[in-house]
Design goal:
Layout (H helix, E strand, L loop, with lengths): L1 H6 L3 H4 L1 H27 L3 E5 L2 E12 L3 E4 L11 E9 L5 E6 L17 E6 L4 E6 L9 E2 L4 E8 L10 E7 L19 H9 L4 H8 L4 H8 L3 E5 L2 E5 L8 H11 L1 E9 H5 L5 E3 L2 E9 L11 E20 L6 E20 H4 L1
Parallel strand pairs: 2-4
Antiparallel strand pairs: 1-2, 3-10, 4-9, 5-8, 5-10, 6-7, 6-9, 11-12, 13-15, 14-16, 16-17
Helix pairs in contact: 5-6
Organism: Carassius auratus
Main location: secreted
GO molecular function: growth factor activity; platelet-derived growth factor receptor binding
């Protein structure tokens, strides 16, 4: 009877179990999609495995409207292991610049062979991916950093070994820059500039006096005098007096010698056939001495990855040589004294390869 009763059930009643299963499956799919959508919107967290180490990765975008602070987790206590955090600071206006100042309480895992390989904090320009600096250890607090545009990235990385304390704390602030005066940021005090920026600025001066004026415009003469004041040094239980005197070592002369002799016109021997591109003639002497730029450019701008010693003043000079050519029809050689025009470099300078192209 029950079997017969089941067969007499209306068709829509027989479909109820199937409809319930379909509805439950749809709800599960919707919940999964909603959860996935939530994660993609907030970019809150993700995990990845590299070299067997699981990294917990946060990426945060901060809109900078004034002063603020960001720091390593648990600062000033020991930060966690296996962590990667990226902060992207974005100024509210295109003309604004962001300045970063590190708290004196700074300590991460020490470097290995002078390189921050394991735990470090890094500052990067988002446009072009230029790394402004990477720091670790606790011996030196990073100097102030200023963005070139209205964004800047700070990246913190720790591995699975030797977390340290106190970590780091960075105060960020806005530097307003008027579009009509883009050079305004160039007058930033020397002590606020990064090591690379200050090194680039100092390298452009010709004398010690110019360097000191740039570093301390208001008291550079006092600083110059201080450099040559007598000093006392301790050796064991005794003291001895060491006096620096002007003229013993002329730093201006040392700097000028580098400029004059690193990249200079020098004697080079050139093959006349190759130089003149004459495959139909023979010259004697076959080679001559000419002045060509030579030397190295180790102290070129740090922004240039391929610095070359290139001519800045060129002159053409005539040289008398014997030229031999086969006569038409193969009847001996034609011998003539002729003047050949060769290029001489009279002045040279270190320039980037892209600038010389």
């Amino acid at each position: 009877m029950l079997s017969a009763y089941k067969h007499r059930q209306p068709p829509f009643i027989q479909m109820i179990p199937l409809l319930l299963l379909t509805l439950i499956s749809s709800l599960h799919q919707h919940e999964s999609v909603a959860e996935s959508s939530h994660i993609s919107k907030i970019h809150y967290a993700s995990t990845k495995q590299q070299n067997g180490v699981h990294e917990f990765h946060h990426e945060k975008v901060l809109s900078v409207t004034g002063d603020g602070i960001l720091q390593s987790p648990d600062f000033p206590n020991t930060y966690p292991r296996n962590t990667v955090i990226v902060w992207r600071l974005v100024a509210v206006t295109e003309s604004s610049r962001i300045q970063l100042t590190f708290d004196p309480r700074f300590g991460l895992e020490d470097a290995e062979d002078g390189i921050c390989k394991y735990d470090y904090v890094e500052v990067e320009e988002p446009v072009g991916g230029i790394v402004l600096g990477r720091w670790c250890g606790s011996e030196m607090v990073p100097g102030p950093q200023v963005s070139k545009g209205n964004q800047i990235l700070i990246r913190f990385v720790s591995d699975e070994y030797f977390p340290s304390d106190p970590g780091f704390c960075i105060r960020y602030s806005l530097l307003q820059q008027r579009p009509s005066e883009p050079e305004a940021t160039a007058v930033m005090p020397a002590w606020m500039q990064s090591v690379d920026a200050l090194s680039e600025a100092v390298a452009g001066f010709s004398t010690m006096e110019e360097v000191m004026k740039y570093l301390e415009p208001d008291r550079w003469q006092v600083d110059m005098d201080d450099l040559y004041k007598p000093t006392w040094q301790v050796v064991g239980k005794s003291f001895f007096h060491q006096k620096k005197s002007r003229g013993v070592v002329d730093l201006n002369l040392l700097r000028e010698e580098v400029r004059l002799y690193s990249c200079t016109p020098r004697n080079f021997s050139v093959s006349l056939r190759e130089e003149l591109k004459r495959t139909d003639a023979i010259f004697w002497p076959s080679c001559l001495l000419v002045k060509r730029c030579g030397g190295n450019c180790a102290c070129c701008s740090h922004n240039c990855y391929d610095c070359q010693c290139s001519p800045t003043k060129v002159a053409k000079k005539y040289h008398e040589v014997l030229m031999l050519k086969h006569r038409a029809g193969g009847r001996g050689l034609q011998k003539t004294l002729t003047d050949v025009l060769l290029e001489h470099h009279e002045e040279c300078s270190c320039v980037c390869k892209n600038d010389s192209d």
